[in-house]
Structures are given as structure tokens and as C-alpha cells.
Amino acid sequence: MSNIAHDTEIETQSPGGCGPLFPAPDSSVKSTRQQLFEAVRAAGAISRMDLSRQTGFSPATVTQTSADLIASGLIEETDLPRRDSDGGRGRPPVGLKVRPSAGVVIGVKISDRSNSAVVLDLAGRLLGSATLPAPPTARSTEEILREAEDIVRAGLRDAGREGARPDAIALGLPGMVDFDLGRVLWCPFMEEADIPLRDLLCARLGAPVRIDNDANLLALAELWFGEGRGLDNFAVVSIEHGVGMGLVINHRLHRGGMGHGMEIGHTKVQLDGALCRCGQRGCLEAYVADYALVREAHTALNLSHQNPSADDMLETLYRQAKEGNALARTIFSRAGRYLAVGLANVVTLFDPALILLSGDRLRYDFLYAEEVLSETRTLTHRPGRPPTPVEIHAWGDLVWARGAGALALDFATETLVG
Amino acid sequence: MSNIAHDTEIETQSPGGCGPLFPAPDSSVKSTRQQLFEAVRAAGAISRMDLSRQTGFSPATVTQTSADLIASGLIEETDLPRRDSDGGRGRPPVGLKVRPSAGVVIGVKISDRSNSAVVLDLAGRLLGSATLPAPPTARSTEEILREAEDIVRAGLRDAGREGARPDAIALGLPGMVDFDLGRVLWCPFMEEADIPLRDLLCARLGAPVRIDNDANLLALAELWFGEGRGLDNFAVVSIEHGVGMGLVINHRLHRGGMGHGMEIGHTKVQLDGALCRCGQRGCLEAYVADYALVREAHTALNLSHQNPSADDMLETLYRQAKEGNALARTIFSRAGRYLAVGLANVVTLFDPALILLSGDRLRYDFLYAEEVLSETRTLTHRPGRPPTPVEIHAWGDLVWARGAGALALDFATETLVG
DNA sequence: ATATTTATTTTGGCTGTCAAAAAAATAATC
DNA sequence: GATTATTTTTTTGACAGCCAAAATAAATAT
Fold it and tell me: Which parts pass through the membrane (chains A, B) (predicted)?
């Protein structure tokens, strides 16, 4: 017979109701105006009917709202490339596109090698860019501010808009950045910590500013301009000095519970493993980052009497591996295996639709080798399910700035259109 | 001078526009009616003014909509507990609460030990429950359907609603479940694979059905009835036969890119590590799951001549560890260390506001020991940031069914209120 | 009793959205 | 070349939803 049992500890939950508690009214709902504007920008050029079909708004609403957006100078009519689909009968559609001069935004990336900036119009098109060498030393907040100012100015000059006041500026840098508060909690090349950089920049540059972690910028670059545009969710993993990750969930960048970046570099791939610069052992970064490879190269290449720079050392190690030096090869191959474990864990935990690998070209041959990808596939093999695709995406040096540009674009759109 | 460089590969992206591409009009927007209903349920009992303040709708709208909801028989007025805050001057507020008889839903959990069900009213209150032993053998789809029917009937009987037609039923089971398609891709105790169980159940039980992975149910139980109600995001990790995880992001259960559960159990904690039943090596599960412990117990306890059940063996191992048997202790302590690595990786990657540990009481002493939690803290230590809280949450056996109840409640709400 | 305070309802109006009809602009057909 | 078919876009009129402000209700304080 039925062995019915009551669960007494649950019975007592009555006073408070049930269901998720929402802290504030959901602010993520965009106005029709903004939705349509963004759909126009996403499409490049699109007819009113297609807009209606894509967004679900009625043709009447699209006509009205687009008239409104045109009157505001935000979009304009344009020719539409001939669509060969059905004969071409009927009234030909007229395209809508973002009016380029509706706004200007700037995306900036500050790093320990070079600073760069892109200048974009409100349609997301590149108006100009600039790259300036960055000092290799630790820098004060004041220096960072000046560098930001310089690179912004150089970018505007290249775009032929000297002295223009951008509608939004976004700046990315490595380290721990609290996006919501606009503070740099820690940055590898900054002397000070916990700096309210966003507000300082805002005051200095006379434009609204957002700051973010550079790994997030990569994800934004893919989401806005690259592979990720059509995907519900994906992860971008980048190997530079550290190992970073940006995660897009449901078409939006996910910044984690505390508002900081996702730190794949410090996931543990080995219990009691190699020492990481964070002080812990077994971090992925301690196996695949620059300094980890250099550390091993130091031993393997027997270069301890010289004192070459880290970059040179890495270069040498890389060359030797390519020439067939077994020791040098094992260094890369071990790093590669651990990288595969790290990637596999991301796949297993998040199950993203795609993983994009990004970073310095130097590393492609070894760390992004087919061997690593195949090991990742092995480690995540699930019967009956296709393996998560892992792609290597090589961009130019301006990706980061481009991602920052996307962030700025998003911000400016809210201000100008919303 | 400025070392300006153009990035040619980007210049050529013009045709397609930029920004995320949204596949379909965002369907996640709820009607005012439903938002207010859910706010009432979340609060338990709440005045119209408080409702207005919480949801951001004007008092006028709240009055109108609540009148509408009352007319539909979904909510009703109620007394409000005296609020001592300010003197108690002015017109006393009138409470609103969900009308209990507005609907009935059932949450069901099928497992390899016992099946259970809870019957809830639309306010989320427990009307009745039932638990029936489950056969330890592999079961056919037909058997699962019959068991589901039985446990639903037993639940309704316990709730004194024999023969009632529930407004929604949700069912959870271990394994791989495709929520969106309503299919069981694989379940440890089912003979067949890739079964459209949702639709089969729907036909059999005559009510709308949803099915989900049991780890997700735990997360839903916490989100609706437990610790997670007030949190933006959190993870629930459960150790049973396998190791599962449910992840709540932004007040919503995240089901992963492919729609399946997050599989923390198969994250790799050791390169070339212990063999897992999934065929791979180094999975967390291969160190902390039942069968892993039993495997080691087999060696340690020197019981190979007998043939005790896995449960008995675990019990023996546990007792011996408690009595001070060093070998038995090392088994648990190693498992604990790997669990710490697994948890640390979740913290590092997701940065959730809270991690809840859930599972069988038996395991609390060793796998959920303070030692493990402290190791997790060590492995995730970030200077300047407080450690991610990890809590052990002990529920009764009905948690899973309760989580399924939440899922059913959500479904029924949409149908009845939306 | 009267003033004060807080909650709720009523009123009137505004905004956004849509369905349906009309208009516009083309190709196909006779 | 006129007519018809087809597709896009605009116009029209109406309705739903939400709100601000005023009015009403129900209590406490004086």
C-alpha cells in the first residue's frame, strides 16, 4: 500500500509566500523606439515590412515609429539591394538604415604594450582608429587618465573629427573591474587599486564613460561584430598574459554574480599543481600563461645565465619547439593538455553553443593546435550529442577597442534613442 | 608621434549591420496581470499600496488589476498582520493573497529508490504529498508512465482531492532531459533512451506536463521556497549517485546552451584521473559519487569475499571512518578535496552569490565537512573580496517534488493568469 | 468633533499599439 | 497601353493599458 509521508519541515513555510523575489521592477524592457532602432542597426538596411516581421510589431507601428526616428535624425531611408526571391512584383520596399552622423562613440583599450582606440558612428561603422605604444612600467592613475585622453584624441584625429565630443566612451583594461560601480579593483600595471576610473574618466573626457574587463570586451566584439551575433550563447576564451573568459548568455554579456569577469584562468586544473601568480596552486593560468611558459623555458632552454625578456624567451621556446626540440615541445604540449581540461570544464558547466578562442597569433600553433581541440572534444564527449564547436578567431589588434566600441554604442543608443 | 594603424580586416564588415541578432520577439515580458499576481504570491499577503511600490505600477493600475484578478477568482482580500512601523495612523491597508482554491498543481520526482509527489495550491501551499517505493531495476517507459500515474493519484488522495484534474504537472528525474523538447535523452534507470516523456505523460495524465532534470528541480525548490528566493543568482550542487548542479542567473533557472542540465559531475578535476562511469577519466563524479566511494571501499574494507549492496558498503565505510579507521578516512578526505576543487571551479567561473549544497544526510559529515568548505575558500581566495558563501541546506525527501511543484506552478500561472 | 494621515478608488486623459482599409508602386497580362 | 495582381507603406479609427490627480474611505491624534 502507499507509504505516504508528510514532510513536516516544509509545512511551516507559510507566512512569506513563494516564488522568486524580484528586487526591482524589471528595467531590461526597451521601448519600441529602441527595439526598432536596434533591429535596423542589426540588419544594416531593412524594409519596414521585414522590420515588422522580425520584431513582431504591426506594420502600422513600424511606419509610425520609423517616421518618428527619421524625424529625430536617427535613421534614414536608403536603397535596398535587389532581392531576387519572388520575381520582384509589388511595391518595392524601401530600406531603412541608421543615419551615420547621428552619433559618435569611442572604444578604448589600455594594456601593457599598447593603447588603442576605435571611433565608430552610431551604425557601428569604423570612422577611425589609433594605436599608441604604452609604457611597460607600472602606471599611476593620473598617467592612465592622460593616456586615455591621448588615445581618444588620436582616434578622433584619425577619424577627422578632432575636438568632437563623443556621445559615449567605453574603456577596457585587464584585471578586475567592477562594471556596475565603474571601479578598477585591480589592474596588473596600475600602481593603485580600487580606483573609481569611470567617474574620473568621465570628468576628464567630458563624455559618459563605461569601463569593463578586457575579456568581456572580446565577448562583446564577437557579439556585436563577429561570430556570436546570431548565437544565443557562447564563450570567448583569450590567452594573453593571463587567461580570460567572456560569457554571453541569452544574447547578453553575463558579468557574473559579483559583477566581475569570469576567471577561467584561475580554475583549478590540478590539485596541488603548479604555482600561480595569484598565490594558489593548480590554476589553469599557471600552466598556459606567458609567465608559466617562460618559467619552464627558463629551465628547459638553459638560459639562466642570460637575462632575456619574457617575450624573447617565449619566442625562442616557440622556435625551438617548431624546430623539433623535444623538451620545448613537451612544454607546449603539457600546457595544451591543461588548456583542454580548462576548456572542457567550461563546456561541461555551461554547455555553450560555441567556444571562441582568441589571442595572440604566436600561440595559435601550439596552444590552439588541433591536438588541444581534439583533446577537449574527448574530454567532453557525450554520446548522442554533437561536440561543442570550438573555433579559433583571429582578429587584428583592434578587437578589444572594437568590443569597447560596442559597449559605448550600447550606452549611446540608450541615451540618444531610448 | 602617433603610431596610427588601420585594421583592414575590420573595414570589410559593412554589409550586415552590427549588434546582437535576436531570433524572435522577446517573449519573456509578462502582462501586468501576471506580474501583479506573482508579486502577491511572492509576498504571501500584501496591501495594494505596497504592491504598487514594489512593482512600480501606479496605485490606480494596482486597484484596477487586482479588482480584475479578484473577479477572476485568482486572488482575494485578507487581513493583514498589524504593521508596527509608523503608529498605525491612516486608513488601514487591506491585504491581498492568492485564492487557494484557484488551482492545483502536482510536482513529481521519479528516482531509483522512491517516487514522490507533492500537491500544491496556486499559492504554493502544500495540500498533500505521497511517497512510494520505486523498483530498483531498470524500467520501461510504460512502467515509468504507470508509476507517475500512481504517485500522482496517491498525492491527490493524500490531499483529499481524489480524481481532481490538476492544472499542471511537472516531473523530474535524473539523467539528461531536454526541457524544451520534453524528451528524456538518457536516464540511469530507464531501459529506453530519447523518449518524448512529456507528451506521453500529458496524454496519460490528462493535464499539461513539463519535465526536467532533477538537479534543476533542486535549484527551483531553493528559488521558490528556500534560500534562493531573494538572491540574484546562486548554484545548487547535489551529491547523490551522481553530482548535479542547478544554476540560477538573474532570478531564473539557467538550463544551459543546449537545454540540458549543468553537469558539474563531469568536470575534470584531475588529468588522467580516476575512471568515471561516463567512460572518461578525472571527472569529479569519479571521486565523490556513490559508486566511486564504494569502489574504494571495496579495496579498503577488504570485503571482496562478501557481496554487500552498494548502500551497505557505503554505510560500513562511513561507520569505519567515524570510528577512526585511517584508510576509510582517507577515502572521504580525498573525495572531499576533489569536491572542493569542483566547487572552487564553479565559484571561479560563475561567481555566484551563494552555493547551496544539498543531498543525502549521510554525506554531510564527510563530504560537506567544514574541512571541504574551508578548502574551497582557500582555492577561491581573492584578495579584497569576501569568499563566496557555501551553505549546506538539508531538506526532507520531498525537495525534488517541491521543485517540480514550483515548475508546475509557474506553468499553471501562465495558463490561468496570463 | 476636527484635523491628520494613509490607503484605495474614481475620473479623465494620454500613449502606444493594432486591425482594417486605403494608397502607392511595381510587374504581369491581356 | 490599360488592367490586374501583388507587395509595401500609410492612414484611419478604435481600443487597451496605464497614469496623474482628485476624490473618497477609514483609521488615529488632538
Answer: none
Q: Please tell me the pTM assigned to this model.
A: 0.88
Quickly count: other Cβ atoms within 10 Å of residue A381's Cβ. Answer: 14
Instruction: Copy the grid coordinates of residue A116.
Output: 588603442
**CATH number (domain holding residue A54):** 1.10.10.10
* Other beta carbons less than 10 A from residue A394's beta carbon: 13
CATH code for the domain in which residue B409 is found? 3.30.420.40
- Counting the structural domains of chain A, the total is 3
List residues bridging with A387 in a β-sheet: none
Name the closest nucleotide to A33, judged by C1' and CA.
C16
The reply to whether A191 and A278 lie within a common domain is no
Same domain? For A379 and A405 the reply is: no
Is residue B254 in some structural domain? yes
- Number of A/B CB contacts below 8 angstroms equals 283
Q: What is the pLDDT of residues A189-240, one digit of tens each?
A: 999 989 999 999 999 999 999 999 989 999 999 999 998 998 988 999 988 7
Contact A46, A40 (CB under 8 A): yes
Nearest to B10 among A42, A232, A398 (CB): A398
Question: What one-letter code names the amino acid at A342?
Answer: G
Q: Strand B95-98's sheet: what is its strand order? A: B46-47, B95-98, B75-78
- A48 located within any domain: yes
If asked whether residues B237 and B215 sit together in one domain, one would say no
pLDDT tens, A333-390?
888 899 999 999 999 888 888 999 887 655 666 666 788 888 889 888 877 778 889 8
Same domain, B238 and B362: yes
Nearest nucleotide to A88 by CA–C1' distance? C27
Burial class (CB in 10 A: 0-12, 13-18, 19+), A385: middle
